[in-house]
Amino acid sequence: MKISKLHITHKEKTLVDINFEIVSSLALVGQSGSGKSLTLKALLGMLPSSMELELKTESDFELKVGETLSFVPQNPFTALSPLTKIRKQFFSKSANVKELFEKVGLDEELLERFPPELSGGQLQRVIIAMALESNPKLLLLDEPTTALDSITRTLILNLLKKLSYELDFKILFVTHDMISASDLCDAICVIKDGNIVESGKMQSVLQNPHAEYTKTLIEANFANREFRK
Prior knowledge:
Elements lengths: L1 E9 L2 E9 L3 E5 L6 H9 L6 E8 L10 E4 L3 H4 L14 H10 L16 H12 L6 E5 L7 H18 L2 E6 L2 H7 L2 E6 L2 E7 H6 L4 H10 L8
Parallel strand pairs: 3-7, 3-8, 5-6, 6-7
Antiparallel strand pairs: 1-2, 1-4, 8-9
């Protein structure tokens, strides 16, 4: 699918003006204030009323939140009601919920627990299961591993990659974390000041970045970790 135009303005000032294509999994990477969060909100229909959006897509499906489009937020601890059992926070019938739990590697008995009784990794799997309820065509990820330790982070990223192949959905991963982006996605767009400054296949960009901004992000993220072609 292609986002052929995503243009956000506020009081006639352009905040974001980008386009990109998601073949299978794409990381939109940038620092705070780069425009990546505004892009995410635009696709979710969550922009403030003071902002104007022009959005053009080329796809075999229409972007509809809760149907073809699902969302996994950054913090699983604040995404669920702490006083409601997990099972009652799903929309699906019990049989479907059990199947969703199996897909994300959770035991059915956790459905009868309250969110504070689960670990961060378990809660993020619950959120992923909820996002899969509608059998989406596109899954938006907003830094879903930020609150997790490194081991759990790797498990969640591997799970998302596995599910995207098995259930045939595309991924747009919005993040500042170049390492997580490289672990999950095949392609990357680097955004700065509301514009794409570099894009391409993940390993190609990592190995041969052209924009100085991209080089800075790579150096900051991979200071203590090597990467290979």
